[in-house]
Design brief:
Length: 520
């Protein structure tokens, strides 16, 4: 049996090594100095030019042309090191086949096609618009080069109705050091990710929110491209690896961060929001509807606010039933049930492999999260009856849910009405296990800077109050004796209150102490 154990151990480490390599390569993409934390190049910078190989090769398919070299004559200076550009025909063929495969799935789902980058009817080779300046023909160009694991560069405006803010583009994909004759399975997500960027750019390259600031909506491009990786290649584990990591900034480790944040590389990990929208409301068209709304709004030339677009898409796929505020509440609930709190067959698929979403402990200090943008505070409550004070000047914009469990482990959900700057409420969990508050923000289309609130216990834990009625009397002695005689299975609260000598044992000595407490 030893050799079998060795086999599985070896396989485990091989798989994890491949995952690690994938993460490292993707980090190269993200942190490349010229990409500004996104793998789309700003259309007005022209930082990335079409690469000119000394000894060029190319492969064509119905929609794509891949440019590469089999020579070792060319190198690039990237991230303070020289990287050779040599590749091979097998790898190039693999790239073009994966691109055609991915495009077919996008087209079947009615996404827009990438626009042609030139007019093959122009015969004057001196014209700057001749196809010789755009890869040789109107097929979509993919260059195997080392600027990043993958990137897409918007190139020329493509003002064709209805998305008149669209651009043509070209793509770069790394040759992976010429170490492979086909794209390895841990890297196929790059093709789907970058191809979706090329499709997104057909809808528009908005300078949303702050005119001139291209990166303002960069989170949207990366968020949806990362989600679409698994739509195209369901076995891809790039996103799963990110969601399983509890040491990074993600919607699980920092649930209070808004869905449009670009902190760290959150925009890739916030693909969880896109995944939620599809799985919660059962309609995969919602992502395309979002991009169609984005494209139409970009065409106006005005800064684009994504949140009304989200609201409109939700209303469409749910026949007007679900608002964006409803979705924020649902999203908080789904994130609560991840990792160790996941439940088979409920909420996110693969939720058991995700990091367990972080909970906030109740403190006397104030807590904040962004207003109206999908952030949430998941608050851990003590495992017994809880009396709370919630104080906030933004009380009319808070949405509060209490989640608890029945003795049969059924989920019990209730909404808590917050009706003033100070709201008092009493919560009880019949199963005696941990329960929680899920605090989110309503959506009114007029977000403020932040919502601040304070949450505090108003009735502290009382030693000897085993019944939880805020009194210590003979009724507590009766429950304590029943605990000793194993007549009842105590809750965590009852055990803490009954173990007066704090030795993790409830026995006759604790009864004596409780009697003295009552008499004293």
């Amino acid at each position: 049996m030893f050799w079998i154990e060795r086999f599985w151990l070896t396989l485990f480490w091989v798989i994890n090594l491949r995952v690690l390599i994938s993460i490292l390569l993707f980090n190269q993409l993200i942190f490349s100095a010229n990409i500004l934390s996104n793998c789309i190049v700003a259309p007005d910078t022209r930082t990335f030019e079409r690469f000119q190989f000394t000894f060029p090769e190319q492969i064509e398919s119905e929609h794509f042309i891949v440019h590469f070299t089999t020579s070792n004559a060319d190198s690039q200076f990237v991230n303070e090191q020289w990287l050779n550009l040599q590749c091979n025909f097998g790898y190039a063929q693999s790239v073009i086949e994966l691109a055609e495969y991915a495009l077919a799935i996008f087209m079947e789902a009615d996404w827009e096609m990438m626009p042609p980058d030139c007019d093959e009817g122009i015969t004057d080779e001196e014209s700057p618009n001749h196809c010789n300046n755009f890869g040789g023909n109107a097929l979509y160009d993919i260059y195997l080069a080392n600027d990043a694991v993958g990137l897409v560069a918007p190139e020329k405006p493509y003002p064709v109705e209805p998305y008149i803010g669209g651009f043509t583009s070209f793509m770069q994909v790394t040759p992976l050091g010429n170490d492979h004759t086909f794209v390895p399975d841990w890297s196929v997500h790059v093709i789907a990710h970058e191809l979706h960027h090329a499709i997104q750019i057909r809808y528009g390259t908005s300078v949303s929110g702050e005119p001139g600031n291209y990166a303002y909506n960069g989170w949207l491009y990366e968020q949806t491209s990362t989600y679409m990786e698994n739509v195209i290649f369901p076995a891809s584990y790039h996103f799963l690896v990110m969601m399983g990591n509890c040491n990074i900034t993600s919607p699980l480790t920092y649930p209070e961060i808004s869905i449009d944040s670009s902190v760290d590389i959150y925009q890739y990990r916030s693909a969880l929001w896109q995944k939620f929208l599809v799985e919660a409301y059962g309609d995969s068209t919602i992502n395309r509807l979002i991009w169609e709304g984005f494209g139409l709004e970009t065409a106006t030339g005005n800064p684009v606010n994504m949140f009304p677009i989200y609201e409109s898409a939700l209303q469409t796929v749910t026949d007007g039933v679900t608002t964006l505020g409803d979705a924020y509440e649902d999203y908080a609930l789904w994130r609560y049930f991840t990792g160790s709190r996941s439940r088979p067959g409920e909420f996110f698929m693969q939720a058991a492999s995700y990091c367990t979403a972080n909970l906030l402990a109740i403190e006397e200090t104030s807590t904040t999260f962004p207003s109206e943008k999908g952030g949430a505070r998941l608050v851990k409550l003590l495992p017994y009856e809880t009396n709370l004070l919630l104080a906030s000047s933004a009380y009319d914009n808070l949405l509060v849910q209490h989640i608890s469990f029945s003795e049969e482990d059924e989920i019990l959900m209730s909404s808590i009405e917050v009706n003033g700057e100070e709201s008092f409420f009493q919560l009880y969990n019949p199963a005696g296990d941990n329960h929680a508050l899920l605090i989110t923000s309503e959506y009114t289309a007029e977000p403020g800077e932040e919502i601040e609130f304070t949450l505090a216990n108003t009735v502290p834990f009382m030693e000897g109050d085993i019944t939880g009625d805020s009194m210590v009397n003979v009724q507590d002695i009766i429950v304590q004796i029943n605990i000793i005689l194993h007549q009842i299975d105590p809750t965590d609260y009852q055990w803490l209150a009954a173990d007066l000598d704090e030795n993790n044992v409830v026995d006759v000595l604790d009864v004596i102490l409780l009697v003295n407490l009552i008499l004293g």
